[in-house]
Amino acid sequence: MRKESDMDLFPGHYQSIYFLFGLFVVMVYAWQKFNEPTFPRGETMPSTVDPLRHMFTQGAYKNARLTYVCVSLLLYSALVWPGPSMMRLLGTGGTPDLPAEAWALLVALFLVGLVPNSRIKWVIMVEEFLRRSVHSWYLVPARVEGMIGSLEDARYEPPERVLRAVSGPFRERLEALRSDLKAPPASLEHRWARATFIFNMLKQIGVAAELPLKAAAFHPFSDDFRGIQEKYSLVQKDVAALHTQPQTDQVEEDLKTVINGLLKRMYAYISWGLGNQEKNEREIDEVLRDIGFKIPVRSPYRPIDILGPAIALVALITMVFWLVLESFRGGSMETSIKIATQAAVSAFCMYGAAVYIALNSRSTLIRNRDWSEGSPRCFLTIAFKAGIATWLTIALFTAVFTPENTWNSLSGLARWVGSLATDSALTMDRETVLYLPKRVGTASPWFFVGAVASVLIFIRFRGDVRTGDTQKRLIDAAVVAIGLGATVYLAQMIQGAWDKIPGIGTVSLKVGLAGLACGAVLGYFVPHAFRMSVSRPYDRNASAALDDLVGKAEKALGAQSDAEDWVFTPHKKLGGITPAEALQHKSLATGVSTLLDFAAPPETEAQPPAIITRPTPMIIEGGRS
């Protein structure tokens, strides 16, 4: 038999048959609900049944669906906790004839919408937010959108296996059309030649054994391919009509817009099929290279390579700093080591989480092509996430380092929630119950520490990424140290004033000096490590890809110094990052070579002036199957 105190702490809802049945209802509902998209339907989604499934790679779909089910069950369990009194909060008037345990089943029925008038707005908003978060975490729809962008920018050279897959007469015509692929990428000739080659390759899926594209993986999208065929036939007629009508710039621009739309649809079709065929992005990239797309070999973006040594040194310096300060106070060695260890662990986790999240957020913005160097929106987004990480870390370690007070507060809060269910009075001391919420609230000034740290470090990322000299690193260290030290001092002053800590000025000065030291370490190491990771990548494949880009740039620009200047300095068309860094992001890597074409000086030919006639794209019959 359970004790009364246990019943107060853990309501009996969780041990009833109603709760178990509610778990089953919510699990089945979440399993089906996951397939409803949380983003507008567009060109990135197939028209086939269960289209969301095909926005994932093979392995990611199962993991994402399981994640969403687990999150839904956690939400259900949290809503069950308050007990029957929640019924009045939802405005249902209560159901006094039902046993208290039935509240769990009612919550489940509310969540899945089986109770009349149960589509409560805030519940719908929370569920949709969780589902959208899971979709975004597993790169939906970003994966397909990113691949479409990559294939748009990538060079395309159809391999011999693609030509061998086409029957004799069509092969000869495609060979004749190959020269149009060497035209400028933005030209009508190049766009149409590209669309023709890719379309004829897609027609051979399931017919030609040479192709690495599997018919079973593309079969669910047969309706979409019929739409591509119909659109190709219509565009083919428009291209053929150029022979019989005046060729104006407006006609060409309109036709290029239509062809670009056709290409995007074919790229989406390839993305769905390969996601259905392969397990991960690395295997997908290999297939794309096999069918003619020049996809660079990328190294995985790992913020820990940039951050790791600096954060370890931050922890060491923090520990030494507090050991020295405590030794001057004359405290015991045991107390000094305890305080220094707590400070070192807090600094390690706080600054590590803030800078890691900031680096990862910056990478995500670049991958989604939303990054713009110097944009207040980008910096505010990153600063907010880094600030939240710092705040939560301080609040967490406050709870960890005062376990007895934290446990008493959690117990009091649990009993308070339980008292709402039983309409009983809470007998615990108010200060004991509110200890943890107060600690979380008074830790809020540390939000600005993480925000300022991320912004200061990213400001030092700007400019040429070639590794700087010692003077440049010292300037980085000074900027971050002064800004971070001042912010830490103010955060500690505000927190101390709220907590009414005696001698807060002296305490804040010590903490501010520790922040100054941590800022100096972060400023000295992190920007330099970032520049090293871009100009001298750790990964062998990434280093080879960078050397290849420098070689191409030297060939296009004529001198090695000009080539290196182009590769290692920021470009507006890349959102303010360098081509060398763009190579590390799939969505931008394929566009670097195209950008180099525009940077190269135009070739001049010493020929007498002649009447310029606009070439007409070659037509390959057979658009309809």
List keywords for this structure.
single chain, 625 residues, mainly alpha, 27 helices, disordered N terminus
How would you characterize the overall build of this protein?
With 625 residues, the chain is an all-alpha fold. The chain has four domains: 4-140, no CATH class; 146-290, no CATH class; 303-535, no CATH class; 540-584. It contains 27 helices and no strands. The protein has helices at 4-9, 17-33, 58-80, 85-89, 103-112, 121-137, 142-153, 160-164, 168-177, 188-203, 215-218, 222-240, 249-277, 281-290, 303-329, 333-367, 376-401, 403-422, 430-433, 435-442, 447-459, 470-499, 504-535, 540-557, 560-568, 579-582, 586-599. α15 packs antiparallel against α23. The longest helix has 35 residues, at 333-367. The protein starts with a helix and ends in a 26-residue tail after the last helix.
